[in-house]
Amino acid sequence: MKIPGLLVVASLAAASMAFAADSSVTFKKVHLCCEACIKGVERSLKDIEGVSLKADEDSESVTLTSSDKAKLQKAANAMAEGGYFGESDNPDIKPVAKTGAKGQKVESLEVTGVHLCCPGCVKAVDRALKNTPGAKAHTAKKNVEKFVVTGDFNDQKFFEALQKEGLSGKVAKAAN
């Protein structure tokens, strides 16, 4: 009679997995200045099944929900890869932005992967530049794929400032 008991335990375990509670993570201070920004976040997550998305331009937040925490982390990373960044309300799930920065002083930094759909996005790059000691100018414009930051600055500090503006990107090429 051990087999029916095992079947009951197995059935209960399967039922509890079928009704597993969804987990969610909200990213605040994500750069969402227009509808095109929201569409960009949606595009960055298009290949990740099992994750729902709610982006809110007014609160500059993105909430991801899934029954699989690993998928939430994958989605957070995809969002960063898509050019967006935010402050996580879940200490277990944080976006990993592979910027390629080395924490070195540079005079010129070519940046790619930043979402730049409109003048509002370019203004966020302006603010990141102003908040990076030694950075003097950039060539970012609406819809460009790459831009150059010049001055005498730490490459990692520029990406940190960019992330504080809710954007993400990576080194395309460094020259010094």
Structural features, described:
With 176 residues, this protein is α+β, with helices and mostly antiparallel strands. Helix content is 35%, strand content 26%. The chain has helices spanning 2-18, 35-44, 69-81, 119-130, 155-164, and strands at residues 23-28, 52-56, 61-66, 87-88, 105-112, 135-138, 146-154, 170-175. The strands form 2 sheets. Strands 2-3-1-4 form a 4-stranded antiparallel beta sheet, covered by helices on one side. A 4-stranded antiparallel beta sheet has the order 6-7-5-8. α4 crosses α5 (155-164). The longest helix is centred in the N-terminal third of the chain and has 17 residues, at 2-18.
Topology:
Elements: H1 2-18, E1 23-28, H2 35-44, E2 52-56, E3 61-66, H3 69-81, E4 87-88, E5 105-112, H4 119-130, E6 135-138, E7 146-154, H5 155-164, E8 170-175
Antiparallel strand pairs: 1-3, 1-4, 2-3, 5-7, 5-8, 6-7
Task: Summarize the structure in short.
With 176 residues, the protein is an alpha+beta fold. The chain contains five helices and eight strands, in the order H-E-H-E-E-H-E-E-H-E-E-H-E.
